[in-house]
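Lecture notes, structural biology module. Today: joint structure prediction for complexes of two components.
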Amino acid sequence: MRAYYQLTLAQLRIFLRNRQVLFWTLAFPIFLMIMLGAFLGNGNGISLTVALVDQEKSEKSKVLFEELKKNEAISLEKSSNEKEELEKLKKGDLQLVVIIPDGYAESVTAGDSNEPFKLPVYYNETNFAISQVGLQLVNNAVDTISKKQVDYKPVVVTDSKGVEALNLRYIDFLVPGIVAMMIMSNNMNGVAGQISSWRERGILRRMQGTTLKASTFIAAQITARFMLNGLQAMIVLGVAWLAFGIEVRGSWLTVIAFVTLGTLAFMAIGFIIAGIAKTPESAGPIAGFLSFPMLFLGGVFFPIKDMPEFLQPIVQILPIAHLSHALRETMNVGASFMDLGMEAIILGCWLVGAFIAASFTFKWE
Amino acid sequence: MESQQEIIKVQGLVKRYGDFTAVDGSEFSVHKGEVFGLLGPNGAGKTTTLEMLVGLRKPDEGTAIVGGFDITQELDKVKEVIGVQLQSTTLFELLTVEEILYLYGSFYREHISVPELIDDMLLTEKKNSRIKGLSGGQKQRLAIALALVHDPQIIFLDEPTTGLDPQARRTLWDIILRLKDRGKTVVLTTHYMDEAHVLCDRIAIMDQGKLIALDTPGELVKNLQSDSAVEFRFDDEADVVLSEIDAVKQIGSQKDVHILYTDDLQKTLTSLIALASEKELKLVDLQTRTATLEDVFIHMTGRRLREG
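The predicted structure, tokenised, for the full assembly:
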């Protein structure tokens, strides 16, 4: 018991004194999260900047302005210089330019449905997709005004209902994935690298010359790494909460349970790699060979359902897929541990299988 | 001698690596309280023998009783009574001297006072320093401290002074002799003759996996039956029968260096110089010295302990 405590303490001291490793293992996930979050974090909201050049300045043109302004997706700029705005549109600073020419109010008031007023809207063809969305929005606004003018009563309306009652952004999807990625790389790559290097340098051999048991050594490794990982996961979640307002909707206990399962499973895989790798130099590439596909196929950055059909069966057995899915369900949807029984069982199988394999491949020297 | 208690009894140890036999049936005993040296050139099987005795390698044949326990049957008990310092061990570089001693102490049921051990190994000033920053001599003293932390009866040291400067070597010798004074049994390997001579009560000479001699350093030299050695080269290939030289008892030659062992240095030298003049050969690097363990080794194997 004393040996277990001392070894855990020693491992934690080594972690804390190895500032560079500590910093970069934390900096990488946080950096990735902030970069991806800042670029893509707003999810499905597309930002549109539309300039309205009001040449008429009448009551009617003001109504159109207000109608456009109602739409939150549009940030509206009022201007009177048509040329300048068109120049901005070419440069891509604007997505649309709407011009209200003289005679607009008069034509609208007349309400001649045979000859509707033509409102010029300029868009840039090089930015086609976003322009189409913008045109649609302007159409809607104009449509509303037309309908009011003719006192139109709709016969059929759509009633859109979101299936998930939550408004999920990409960042909500991303953060649990990043936590899963961190657990994978710190444990799998970390254990593989450290154990094989300790073996190479004879550190393990020297310990084999004492009455220390391998099980005590491994147990202490696991404890120390688990403590460090738990802390790192909490820091990443804390940053996510501060920077993007990400919260854990489910139970923290479920999150902790899956962080634990993931840590143990990936650590066991790390021990297998350390056993297979003949030198510390080869441990890195072997761990990389396993972690890279998992990063891209395992649902860390992209949803698994977006993967090609033939990859699905492979993806479905990767441990990272279940870890990231379970974390996501807990954090985003608020699923309970019981809801995630399948994920827990699959991770548990990985854990048990990997530890059995690790105990056969583990070598002191 | 006969009345001494055997603390280690090695019985026909064999270790093979593929076709290569690293240790070929070693048999010897170590007495309680002595410093026992395993001497030989690199690759002689010293380290392999030592590693089998401490349980790091499994012997292919034979066994040994260490401190009353069989190394193939009761390794856990063996490990409690022995302390080990291995060749080229690195330790956790980011821990301090004190921390690692407590760590290793925790691996055993009991350990001695760490502050006293630190004082004893002359590491007091360094006790809060990280291992990374220690000098070679300090690291080696720490490695020995780690071997002593659980107060073992038998201490195994694998080339404890290799790579150290003369000052650090002498400090380490003092430490090893102090261990002996306290009644510990020390088994060490070395390829330094002077070290074996100063430290060891008895020496086993190994060559190519075989034990070729075992005795006290004094007896080994005495068995050469010669007091002095004459060492020289000819500057040309020479066809000379060296045994014709007066008073030569034994000849140890390797490559172009010839060594003559004699009890009558003056007679041998005179005769050698006369021979050289007669055959018009030039003597190079001529030197005379008292016979040492090195000569014992050359005599027995035809090779030097350390080439070059």
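Point to remember: Residues 142 and 302 of chain B are 37 Å apart (CA to CA).
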